[in-house]
């Protein structure tokens, strides 16, 4: 089996906003990209004007997620089935079992999730960061959940930026910013990322405001930034490849 990149996020659209470019880049080179999404985003926006009723929103957002994932080359999606805005109170043992099962099944070299503050302090983002960290460590310890398969130690856990990426990438010297451990050039895939953002049609206001209607759209869509949570000591900062040093 080739190498795997696992993305663990809270809502449909997190994967595209934060990792759409790296999903394209690594799926293009044969890396298997797997996504775990905790909720169907039913407490989010439905568009302006609304594209569906509140009752229809979870199914609509799931369909949007599947379209975006197909555009990004994501090979597999796991929906964890929690309710939007309620993830912080989900049973920790249950989430651990779900995520450890996924990790031991797809055996990722690199795992990506939110930073511990969730990027924007959204309670679901904070919660999935906590659950992802717990599960990455538990999956590596054979004493946890032996029925879910042999232990697997991911080589690296990285976090998305602690600031909105569309603000961070405008810094004149991004490499000097604390927490910038990986700056990934995804410019070759910016139109695919834009198409995946467009697939999240109910989120069109955020997509327009933060990305596609901005004068520096190409820069915003062409760079993704990550911080190392754990992994090999970095040869330098920032690196330009999430798999650097993993052999
Ligand atoms: Zn989110």
Structure description:
The protein has 247 residues and is α/β, with parallel strands linked by helices. It has one domain (4-230): Rossmann fold. Helices cover 37% and strands 17% of the residues. The chain has helices spanning 14-28, 57-72, 92-106, 123-139, 165-168, 190-199, 204-212, 217-222; strands spanning 4-9, 32-39, 76-82, 110-113, 156-159, 182-185, 223-230. It has a seven-stranded mixed β-sheet with strand order 3-2-1-4-5-7-6, sandwiched between helices. α4 (123-139) links the parallel β4 (110-113) and β5 (156-159). Bound molecules: zinc ion. The site of zinc ion has 5 residues, from loops.
How can the largest sheet be summarized? Answer: 7 strands, mixed
Order of helices and strands: EHEHEHEHEHEHHHE
Name of the top-level CATH class: Alpha Beta
- By CATH, the superfamily comes out as LmbE-like
Task: Tally the beta strands.
Answer: 7
Helix content: 25-40%
The distinct ligands, each listed once, are: zinc ion
Give the N-terminus to C-terminus distance in angstroms.
15 Å
Total domain modules = 1
Summed over residues and divided by their number, the pLDDT gives a mean of 96
Question: What is the C-alpha radius of gyration, as a whole number of Å?
Answer: 17 Å
For the largest beta sheet, what order do the strands appear in spatially?
A: 3-2-1-4-5-7-6
Low-confidence segments, given as residue ranges, are none
- Helix/strand structural class: alpha/beta
Helix count, DSSP H or I runs of 4 or more residues: 8
């Amino acid at each position: 089996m080739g190498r795997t990149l696992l993305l663990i996020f809270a809502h449909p659209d997190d994967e595209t906003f934060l990792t759409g470019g790296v999903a394209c880049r690594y799926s293009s080179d044969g890396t298997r990209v797997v996504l775990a999404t905790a909720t169907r985003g039913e407490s989010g926006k439905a568009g302006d004007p609304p594209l569906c009723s509140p009752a229809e929103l979870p199914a609509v957002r799931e369909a949007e997620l599947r379209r975006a994932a197909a555009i990004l080359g994501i090979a597999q999606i796991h929906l964890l089935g929690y309710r939007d805005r309620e993830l912080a109170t989900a049973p920790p043992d249950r989430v651990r079992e779900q995520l450890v099962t996924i990790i031991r099944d797809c055996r990722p070299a690199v795992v990506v999730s939110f930073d511990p503050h969730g990027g924007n302090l959204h309670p679901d983002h904070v919660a999935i960061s906590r659950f992802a960290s717990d599960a990455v460590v538990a999956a590596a310890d054979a004493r946890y959940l032996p029925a879910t398969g042999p232990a697997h130690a991911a080589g690296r856990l990285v976090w998305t930026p602690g600031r909105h990426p569309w603000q961070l990438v405008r810094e004149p010297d991004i490499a000097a910013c604390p927490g910038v451990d990986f700056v990934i050039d995804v410019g070759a895939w910016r139109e695919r990322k834009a198409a995946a953002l467009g697939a999240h049609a109910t989120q069109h206001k955020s997509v327009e405001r933060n990305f596609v209607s901005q004068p520096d759209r190409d820069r915003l869509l062409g760079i993704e930034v990550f911080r190392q949570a754990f992994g090999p000591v970095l040869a330098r900062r920032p690196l330009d490849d999430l798999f650097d040093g993993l052999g």
